Amino acid sequence: MHEQIFFYFTSDFHSQFENWPKIVAFLKEKRKLRLEYNQTCFILDNGDHLDRVHPITEALMGQGNIELLNKAQYDAVTIGNNEGITINKAELIRLYERASFKVVCANLICSVGNNPTWLKPYRIMVTPSGIRIGVIGFTAPFKPFYQPLGWDVTDPLQMMAQYLPIIKKEADIILVLSHLGIDQDQMLAEQYPDIDLLIGGHTHHLFKQGEQHNQTLMSAVGKFGHYVGEAIITWDHQKHCILDKKASAISIDHYSNDYDALKLLEKQSQRATQLLAKPVATLSQSYKSEWFSETPLITKLTEKLAQWTNADLAMLNAGILLDGLKAGIVTERDIHRICPHPINPCLVELTGQEVLEVIRAGLTNDYMNLEVKGFGFRGKVMGRLVFTGIELKVEMDNNAQIHLREVFFQGKPIELNKLYRVATADMFTFGHLSSQISRATVKTFFMPEFIRDLLRETVKELEEK
What we know:
Blueprint: E1 2-10, H1 20-36, E2 40-45, H2 55-60, H3 63-71, E3 76-77, H4 81-85, H5 89-95, E4 102-104, E5 108-110, E6 119-120, E7 122-126, E8 132-139, H6 143-146, E9 151-153, H7 156-170, E10 173-179, H8 182-191, E11 197-200, E12 206-213, E13 216-221, E14 227-236, E15 241-251, H9 259-275, E16 279-283, H10 296-309, E17 313-317, E18 328-331, H11 332-338, E19 345-351, H12 352-362, H13 365-368, E20 385-388, E21 390-396, E22 402-409, E23 412-413, E24 419-425, H14 435-438, E25 443-445, H15 451-461
Parallel strand pairs: 1-2, 2-3, 3-4, 4-6, 8-10, 10-11, 11-13, 17-24
Antiparallel strand pairs: 1-14, 5-9, 7-8, 12-13, 14-15, 16-18, 17-20, 19-24, 19-25, 21-22, 22-23
Helix pairs in contact: 10-15
């Protein structure tokens, strides 16, 4: 006898709630269809369902996201970096306490004390006919971010080696929820051919059809909930083995909104609006924000960053503030609106020569107009780099291009071989935004504070003169 098992899955939703009612409509349709044909289906999420860029997630600290997953009858999820490192340890532990689904993450462990009861490395899901599916999850191993929050995050490949022999004894089918990115997904598939199905994410890649890698079927649904994954595994009961497996990513953009999901989101939005209406300060004047020039608001925020981190100098990009603030009452919603990024302060050690290179790169028009996607940044462009703690001497050529002539630290020319403690936003430690900062060997990340937490304190001090 042959039996088909259906898996439906989301990944990297990032609190794009406008797509959620369509996702729910799709899942309800598929669940109803499977019941009509007496078939088994499981619903899974591959992490980064929440993102504090959205006011609902910010105000409810992710609890609204869990409520949505509960109502949609998810069976199992893994933890993405947005769940793991954008809220503190106590909030993460509380996050899943009311979850009606299973949470699997094999490479995340409490560094002090016991793991919360909901956190397991893997789970065994069983179909009515007795087919056992082992589901193991992994989160991106951002060790420098997890450690200050009280978590140990370990090498997923090593943890797979540890748990795979155990799961093989307990399960007929092995499924991986991987919030690791496509490169590590391929490494898992190459090193562990016993993986039957790997659901990938984190790097927001999209496989409209499943891709076979070694013995493993890999699937991925991109970002923001425009696609929902469907995987079908056909099991041969007589031979006790998989007969066939296939996967696809299905666009849900054409679906109508599910009414119940829409009403629940409206209710959550009302709660969020009330919570974010809390006053922060009252301003007697407006403070504008301009991405390509230095304004008092970004200057004060950069000064606050230097003071708060006890740095020699500090740097922020003007594009980190999406808007200014009007005179009058400033609320928590205003702070979130103009600085929604889940970005932390950090401190790096750079030589004077490296500081000069960072400054020169930031003065170019190409750099200031660079459109940034990812790294926690939720804005549009980099904008001008703003510094405090140093004085720049620049001049402009006939093409309106700015050139750096001299840099002074405490009234003296910056020393090329001296190490300086530079405070900035953690996004500069990733990728191509600043090779000098990303290569720094000494980095300190301040967790769980965001740049907007410093903005809040900056706004409180604006009128204190």
